[in-house]
Amino acid sequence: MMKNSLSLQTISRIAVFIILLFSVYFLFAGHNNPGGGFIGGLMAASALVLLYLSFGTKKINKVIRINFPYLIATGLLIAMATGVISVIFGYPFLTQFYEYFHFPLLGKAGLATALLFDAGVFLVVIGVTILVILTIAEDDD
Amino acid sequence: MSILHIAILAPFIFAIFIPLFYKYLPRIHTGWFVLVLPTLLFIYLIRMLPTISKGEVITKQFEWVPSLGINFNVYIDGLGLLFALLITGIGALVVLYSIYYLGKKGEALHNFYVYLLMFMGAMLGVVLSGNLMVLYVFWELTSLASALLIGYWYHRKKSRDGALKSMLVTVMGGFAMLAGFSFLYVITGTFNIQEIIANADVVAASSLFIPAMLLILLGAFTKSAQFPFHIWLPDAMEAPTPVSAYLHSATMVKAGIYLVARMSPVFAGAAEWFWLVAGLGIFTLLWGSFNAVRQTDLKSILAYSTISQLGMIMSLLGLGSASAYYGYEDYYVIATYAAIFHLINHSTFKGSLFMVVGIIDHETGTRDIRKLGGLITLMPITFTLSIIGAFSMAGIYPFNGFLSKEMFFTGLLHSLDITQFNMQSLAFLFPVIGWIASVFTFIYSMIIVFKTFTGKYQPEKLDKKPHEAPIGMLVPPIILAALVVVFGFFPGLLEHTIIDPAVHAIHPAALAAGEHFGIHIYPWHGWDAPELWMTIGVIALGVIMYLTLTKWQKIYEFLRLHKKDPINYIYDYLLDGVIRFAKKVTSMQMTGLLRDYLAFMFIFVIAIVLYSVIRYDVFSIDTGNMEGIPFYFWIIAFVFAAATITVPFIQYRVAAIIAVGIVGYLVALFFVIFRAPDLALTQLLVETVTTTLFLLCFYHLPELRKERSKPKFKLTNLIIAIGVGATVTITALSTLVARGHRPFEAISEYHLENSYKLAGGDNVVNVILVDFRGFDTFLEILVLGIASLGLYSLIKFRVKGRDSI
């Protein structure tokens, strides 16, 4: 795609990590602040798109060996698992739980199964976005 | 389920085994196996005759769909048994005849006998069921079987056309009848015929009385080939001759007669019933006999003759219904009596005549009377049979047709004394029309006999060398002709055994149990009886007209009747018209253009929304809050509108994509202003990703189809677009006002209060997405996954080498 764009590649190397970090922040902050799985997923996907744009798909495909259809499936399974677990314990489908714990380093923190659900959303959104863009971009016919 | 039920269903059960006989016993004609069944059924049914003669009835119950009141209950009285005997008796004879008529080679015998048995069972079901819905089911089965039998030689176009026509006409009537039955159910709350008859006064008082009567009569008239629905019967003559003899003379066409007779206790006494049944019947009699004379094909003559004879029976039933007014005096009941008697007679002589015509066709290769002639010495037995049948049909002593013809005249003359139904001024029409029609009946009966068997023998016009038929083919018409003679000499055999109970079923109030009608069938009425002179007149004028046939036959050309029945023109016009109209409508709305379909949908949306807005007067605008809007908001709204309006005017795709992108980012800005941070973030990201996708897709668009022209400006599109925009705006504004006085609390209060308490999250939007309404989110990511996998498989797994999209 791109021939040799040194400045773009250099900036991308740094920016991608910042964006990825930001996306993970969105994922975790979602429950109490703006954000969530969907936004985080889109953000992470745009970081990957940036990588593809600056280094070309061939190079990045060597580095990121993710099968995106599997990623989508994994995300869906995680999201569904949170629902099924509540069924196993006798609650209606997709009942979410949360509890506060004292962690050794972090101190008191809330843990919710909703986060797991959000993680599923996160994975699905990344998978969908990248799969769509890569499929169209790599189509030579 | 009793033996009676099994007897009725036996033909259906037996039909299953026919293909096995045909396949595994090919050396024996399949018909021999079939013959067993109607014979056994006939014996079984005739054993009930003594019971029925005593005026008793036999009923058997079987629950089918009790929750809907649809039960297969068998009800056998005189009327039902009479028909059942005709069906099985003539059925047996027809099967025997068909064994010799249809060869073992080259005929799909298994089809033929399966259809025939299906018809037989259906017909038995029609006449023996005491439930209207069950009757209807069997009724449609007879239509179906009839169409299958008419189209038996399906490689001939004429057969297929005839089958289609009979199907369309009879099923049309059948549906009407179903509606009529439903009306009766609505009125009385039952499908049981006897219960409906018991509630006849309730039916008569109902406002649905006339619609129910008309619809049921429509069913009866189409089935019984009454004017103007008779057109299917001549075309049904494309069927094999045993079928014509069985279905189209003796049994199925009498199903309508049966229905009229069966429904008489409910409807008799109404002027509409009298005029429709009697009036249409007598006109059908005239029309059928008048048209029969011009035919050159023997089966066509018989078809029109059947139409006319059915009209005669129908008119007699109508005249008999007048007796409901006069306390069922024998004086008026005689018409009904004549109807039943002639029904039996017609089945005997018409069945034998059809078989005779089949023999002639089979042995000479033609049915055209212009080619036939002088067969008297070659086929003496056939000639004798045809003379018996045709003379009986013409009403000549000593055959049974003479007796019923005289009774017909008696009934007609008695109609002069009917003072109801405006009959004083019109009563003379019945004897006059009946008498004229009898003259024509005489003429065509003579044509059948003398044009075929006397005159010049023309062997050069015949395909085969004619000779007498095999004995097996002659036995059934001999039996029927023997019955013609026996009933002619000993009509008393029928009087108390079967006609009395049958008439009693039609006029249940006329007789107490065990009594008999004071009517007797006798051939000699005395010199002063007008019936005798009417018959003599018919014969005298008939002979003169037959001898001068060539002189006055030009009248048909003058009346333009010589080619085909004028009703056929109407039928063809209607059928073509329906097809043409349907094609026109379809080609008008099904253009194949997506934009047209979209336009239809949008127009519909506009129409329905505007209609409800105007109908319920809900449009309202509240301008009170307009002052509170800050100035910067106006600027954003203006830019938003400007960007939107530019999109349709942009010539280049890239520019359009960018303009759409601007609109998207402005939406994100709106979200920011209305304090929806999650939405704003999502909108920004989604907008970016979709713009990327747009650009990628644009890159892939093929060179050739690059459409750089301005989108065609279409006024209609503009109007539709403005209309949709206006309706949506109106709805939105009205909803906004309506929100001011809504009766319910918004659920968002609950979410705001409980999001931290119950779900442990401060971000209410996210809590709703993953917790309160997690199910929606789950399905949404599923949608995303399916969409991407769909796209993936569309692109990756498309078949290479074909024309790409």
Automatic annotation (TrEMBL), chain A:
Keywords: Cell membrane, Membrane, Transmembrane, Transmembrane helix. NCBIfam families: PRK12573.1. It comes from the Bacteria. GO terms for cellular component: plasma membrane. Residues 8-130 form the Na+/H+ antiporter MnhB subunit-related protein domain. The lineage of its organism: Bacteria, Bacillati, Bacillota, Bacilli, Bacillales. This is Na(+)/H(+) antiporter subunit B. The chain crosses the membrane at residues 12-30, 36-56, 68-94, 114-137. It is found in: Cell membrane. PANTHER family: NA(+)/H(+) ANTIPORTER SUBUNIT B, NA(+)_H(+) ANTIPORTER SUBUNIT B. Belongs to the CPA3 antiporters (TC 2.A.63) subunit B family. It is a multi-pass membrane protein.
UniProtKB/TrEMBL annotation, chain B:
It is a multi-pass membrane protein. Pfam families: MbhD, MbhE, Proton_antipo_M, Proton_antipo_N. One of its GO terms (cellular component) is plasma membrane. Keywords: Antiport, Cell membrane, Hydrogen ion transport, Ion transport, Membrane, Sodium, Sodium transport, Transmembrane, Transmembrane helix, Transport. Residues 129-415 form the NADH:quinone oxidoreductase/Mrp antiporter transmembrane domain. It is found in: Cell membrane; Membrane. Residues 640-703 form the MrpA C-terminal/MbhD domain. The chain crosses the membrane at residues 6-25, 32-52, 72-100, 112-130, 136-154, 166-187, 202-222, 243-261, 273-290, 302-328, 334-360, 372-397, 426-450, 471-490, 532-549, 597-614, 629-647, 654-674, 680-701, 713-738, 777-795. Its main location: membrane. Residues 715-798 form the MrpA C-terminal/MbhE domain. InterPro entries: CPA3_Na-H_Antiporter_A, MrpA/MnhA1/PhaAB, MrpA_C/MbhD, MrpA_C/MbhE, ND/Mrp_TM, Proton_antipo_N. One of its GO terms (biological process) is sodium ion transport. Residues 67-104 form the NADH-Ubiquinone oxidoreductase (complex I) chain 5 N-terminal domain. GO terms for molecular function: antiporter activity. Belongs to the CPA3 antiporters (TC 2.A.63) subunit A family. PANTHER family: NA(+)/H(+) ANTIPORTER SUBUNIT, NA(+)_H(+) ANTIPORTER SUBUNIT A. This is Na+/H+ antiporter subunit A.
